[in-house]
Design goal:
The protein is α/β, with parallel strands linked by helices. It is built from seven helices and six strands, in the order E-H-H-E-H-E-H-E-H-H-E-E-H. The radius of gyration is 18 Å and the shape is globular.
Length: 236
């Protein structure tokens, strides 16, 4: 059976789900936020150690201001309302992405929940917020340049290997394992700038189910199919 530590999900389809119901897009986002709790609880109960959810990308700022403003309010409400759930279920909360661009009240909510749950070990749930993988890698390189680090490698091959390790340790996910299984809901089949480094050897699963309708039965089926695969990581 394939080891499964880390599941990442691109939660796509909230707006389309609402439009298919004849409702405003923000209704789909609210329904999708509720589904985050359902999927997170299931993963915690089934001994998944890491769950990373693509919640808001660096490209999402290009959406209409009214929708972006609603998403920011929805995120604030989610962090306030769900805080007790994290504590009751001993779930560690983390956020990755360029958080510094958010409002101070929203940043405070993120940092407070991270700090208050940092000792929990049952499941680490990570929300990717204002996240883009290219942006993350660029920020990691900037950290390395700022630190003026020297790897002392003796050959070009050693230099590349040392830089790869240094870069991995400078990413937002430095203390997390690489992604084992990456799922995208909503019918699209692309990574959309999500965890490009961390998912370099992830198994991919795409489903036409829109995120608000994605349930634990479908997640269990995808995991079962994952366990039937053979992961060679470039070997034989």
């Amino acid at each position: 059976m394939q080891a499964l530590q880390h599941i990442a999900i691109i939660m796509d389809g909230n707006g389309r789900w609402a439009q298919m119901q004849g409702k405003a897009r923000h209704i789909g986002h609210k329904k999708g936020a509720k589904n985050v709790r359902v999927i997170t609880d299931w993963c915690a109960k089934h001994e998944i150690q890491f769950l990373t959810l693509y919640a808001f990308s660096t490209e999402n700022w290009n959406r209409p201001k009214k929708e972006v403003d609603f998403l920011m309010r929805l995120l604030e409400r989610y962090l306030r309302d769900e805080a007790p759930t994290y504590h009751e279920n001993e779930i560690k909360f983390r956020a990755i992405g360029d958080i510094e661009t958010f409002s101070q009240p929203l940043r405070d909510l993120i940092y407070t929940l991270e700090s208050s749950t940092k000792s929990y070990t049952k499941l680490t749930q990570t929300l990717a917020l204002n996240y883009g993988s290219r942006n993350e890698i660029a920020r990691a390189c900037y950290k390395i340049l700022q630190a003026n680090m020297s790897n002392g490698a003796q050959s070009p091959q050693e230099a590349v290997k040392a830089l790869e390790s240094t870069l991995a340790n400078a990413l937002d996910t430095a203390d997390m394992p690489d992604v084992d299984l990456l799922i995208r809901t909503g019918g699209e089949q692309r990574l959309s700038n999500f965890l490009l480094w961390q998912a370099s050897y992830a198994e991919l699963a795409f489903t036409h189910t829109l995120w608000p309708d994605f349930n634990t039965n479908e997640l269990a089926r995808i995991i079962e199919e994952f366990h039937s695969r053979t992961r060679r990581f470039g070997g034989l």
